[in-house]
């Protein structure tokens, strides 16, 4: 009699059942990744905007007003970032006061999720007449 090697039908069925159970447990965890990815993208963009605003203000203060972009509104953040505000994000306009941190709101256009970064003006807004 020849010695045959291979898997029995029962072994193959057991492996298929185990893979089916693993797939049933893993698939629901991967379905929600899109929402988490959008939240992470918003956090990354907001972090970059806050950093750009802080670096601009630090340069303004360190140079006694000689360096840095003019910023007097939250939506001026586009002038501080290479390429401007990324596509799919909107910065809500809001006035900023020189040397006073203020919250600026960013809206993620597709999901309407919002987050905030700290904005600081680098120019004095003259009072309205």
Structural notes for this entry:
The longest helix is centred in the middle third of the chain and has 30 residues, at 33-62. The chain contains two helices and three strands; from the N terminus they run ααβββ. It is rod-shaped and about 100 Å long. With 129 residues, the chain is an alpha+beta fold. The protein has one domain. A three-stranded antiparallel sheet has the order 1-2-3, with helices on one face. The chain crosses the membrane at residues 6-27. Pfam families: N_methyl (PF07963). Keywords: Membrane, Transmembrane, Transmembrane helix. This is Prepilin-type N-terminal cleavage/methylation domain-containing protein.
Oligomer: single chain
Give the termini separation. Answer: 107 Å
In terms of structural class, how would the helical and strand content be classed? alpha+beta
| Integer-rounded radius of gyration | 27 Å
Helices and strands in order, then pairings?
Blueprint: H1 9-31, H2 33-62, E1 89-91, E2 102-108, E3 114-119
Primary descriptors:
alpha+beta; 129 residues; rod-shaped; three-stranded antiparallel beta sheet; 41% helix
What's the short story on this structure?
By secondary structure, the protein is an alpha+beta fold. It has one domain (10-119).
């Amino acid at each position: 009699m020849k010695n045959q090697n291979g898997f029995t039908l029962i072994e193959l069925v057991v492996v298929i059942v185990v893979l089916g159970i693993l797939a049933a447990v893993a698939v629901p965890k991967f379905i929600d990744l899109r929402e988490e990815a959008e939240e992470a993208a918003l956090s990354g963009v907001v972090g970059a905007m806050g950093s750009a605003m802080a670096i601009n203000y630090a340069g303004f203060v360190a140079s006694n007003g000689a360096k840095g972009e003019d910023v007097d509104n939250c939506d001026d953040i586009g002038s501080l970032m290479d390429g401007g505000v990324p596509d799919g994000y909107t910065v809500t306009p809001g006035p900023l006061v020189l040397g006073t941190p203020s919250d600026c709101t960013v809206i993620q256009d597709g999901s309407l999720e919002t987050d905030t970064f700290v904005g600081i003006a680098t120019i004095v807004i003259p009072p309205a007449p």
